[in-house]
Design a protein that fits this description.
Length: 165
């Protein structure tokens, strides 16, 4: 806050070290970022995956998703990311789960969705886009652990529909 030098300090034994200003005592909290994703089911019951053209995970497959903006509703962010990455309008049908991992920054919130409009097209953040049956998914070439975990949960019927139409 004041521009003073920061030093890593252990403030509580149960928490990680925090950066503390040596001048004014301000504590910097490095909080997680929230990522939203959608597993989109097409009319033919296949799901949509994009092959990433950006890091992390360049060249690997993932469901459409990205970071929420500050002040944005989570469901609105999920629909926005789906539209940006696939050119599809989607209807969210339920929450699959929320994923977080030790020593990883993002918290990943994944929704199940159905395409309700638009034409399947990839954006500049992907090399290609495709729709896959469960048997066709490139399991060995998925970008993230959360992609694999959410797909497994989706195909195993783990879906929370409270509050969804």
């Amino acid at each position: 806050m004041c521009g003073g030098v920061l030093e890593a300090r252990l403030l509580k034994p149960s928490q990680p070290e925090r950066l503390v200003c040596l001048v004014c005592g301000y504590i910097v909290y490095l909080d997680p970022k929230v990522v939203v994703g959608t597993i989109i089911k097409m009319e033919d019951n296949r799901i949509v995956l994009v092959r990433r053209a950006i890091e992390p995970g360049y060249g690997k497959w993932a469901f459409p998703g990205g970071y929420m903006d500050r002040g944005e509703e989570m469901t609105a962010a999920a629909r926005r990311e789906a539209l940006e990455e696939t050119s599809l309008d989607v209807r969210l049908i339920g929450l699959i789960s929320i994923y977080s991992y030790t020593n990883r920054v993002p918290v990943v919130v994944v929704y199940a969705a159905t395409a309700v409009g638009g034409t399947l097209r990839h954006c500049d953040e992907s090399l290609e886009i495709g729709s896959f049956s469960q048997e066709q998914i490139p399991w060995e070439n998925l970008a993230f652990r959360s992609t694999r975990d959410a797909l497994h949960d989706y195909f195993n019927g783990r879906l929370h529909c409270h509050g969804f139409e």
